[in-house]
Amino acid sequence: MKVRLLGTSDLKITPIIMGTWQAGKGMWTGIDDAETIKAIRAALEAGITTFDTAEEYGWGHSERILGEALADVRNQVIYATKVFCSSLKYDQVIEACHRSIKNLKADHIDLYQIHWPSGSWGSKVVPIEETMQAMNDLKKQGKIRAIGVSNFSRSQLEEATRYSRIDSLQPPYSLFWRQVEKDEIPYCVDNNITVLAYSSMAQGILTGKFGPDHKFAKGDHRSKNKLFKTENFQRAQQALAKLRPIADRYNISLGQLALAWVIAHQGTCAIAGARNTEQVLQNAKAAELSLSTADLAEMDAIGRMVTDPLDDNPVMWEP
Questions:
Q1: 211, pLDDT greater than 90
Q2: Do 104 and 77 contact (CB within 8 A), yes or no?
Q3: How do beta strands 12-13 and 16-19 pair?
Q4: In the predicted model, is pLDDT for residue 150 greater than 80?
Q5: How many CB atoms lie within 10 A of CB 92?
Q6: 19/195 Cα distance (integer angstroms)
Q7: For residues 9, 12, 15 and 17, what is the CA-based torsion angle, rounded to 10 degrees?
Q8: Is the confidence at residue 139, as pLDDT, over 90?
Q9: Residues 296-307: what's their mean pLDDT?
Q10: What whole-number distance in Å separates Cα of residue 181 and Cα of residue 7?
Q11: How many CB atoms lie within 10 A of CB 60?
């Protein structure tokens, strides 16, 4: 799989990144550690060398599973993890980083990201200058190699860049969720900041596997995803019907088509989660696809059937 440079760093990342939120088990159902480890190893064998996680995913469980799966090939992979918004004071960032390094069975983190802006989810507000000082110090010490942010608005991103070099932004971004196209992505393109799109298959909607009567198991966070609400979900089903002929032309799945659309955008990589080996192998194949200009334009118009009626709130989930 061809690699891309992350921002202005020397880190080489794959256009398809394996996301491991589900590996943490919190807010997901039916996750098996052994299957997750097999999927992670299969991802590496398929050419995916970049793995995204966070301490918040199962309170370190996702990081520990990733470390267990890849400890013997650490020098072949890129670890991207995150510090949560409740731990953004200077000492808290330092402590969280050391915990993540231990969880990952590593001696450093390749990309360390602020998971949510200070003040999110009821957390205390910490000046971004203080948080970035900790990140800069960790980078000087060799504990981290690059700094990124996640779920930041353009103004928050601009403020963070006043105190440090930011090499990545991780926002929710897919054919069905596109608020960041207005302000954040243009800023990233202009400033050589790589976009790491999460929920790049709209948490499974773009795979086409969820029918109109689907009921999520208790504890599955997707039950609160705005795209699964009745009106939005109906529009999504109509859009999927129009996307299927395009996928058929390339002899690929809807999920692969959705990932190919994301990575076709300048400076954008797609984070894709997987519960098992089959899913991760399907995701990896998306890196081989090259969509025509005409098909990209057609997909753009189809996606707007879903996105145009949405409000400007970039958070995918209802409280």
A1: no
A2: no
A3: unpaired
A4: yes
A5: 17
A6: 14
A7: -100
A8: yes
A9: 97
A10: 18
A11: 21
Which tokens in the block code for residue 49?
């060398």
What is the Cα–Cα distance from 245 to 260, expressed in whole angstroms?
Answer: 15
Q: Look up 187 and say whether it is catalytic.
A: no
Strand partners, 5: 12
CA distances from 177 to 18, 44, 100, 251, 269 (A): 19, 28, 30, 25, 15
Length of the chain: 319
Q: How many CA atoms lie within 13 A of 201 on its CB side?
A: 27
What are the residues whose beta carbons fall under 8 Å from the beta carbon of 131, sequence distance 6 or more? 88, 89, 90, 93, 114, 118
Which residue in the list 57, 79, 112, 198 is annotated as catalytic? 57
**Angle at the Cα of 264 from the Cα atoms of 47 and 256, rounded to 5 degrees:** 60
pLDDT in tens, 55-65: 999 999 999 99
List of domains in the chain = 4-204+253-290 (3.20.20.100)
- pLDDT tens-digit map of 21-71: 998 888 777 889 999 999 999 999 999 999 999 999 999 999 999 999 999
Mean pLDDT of the chain: 95
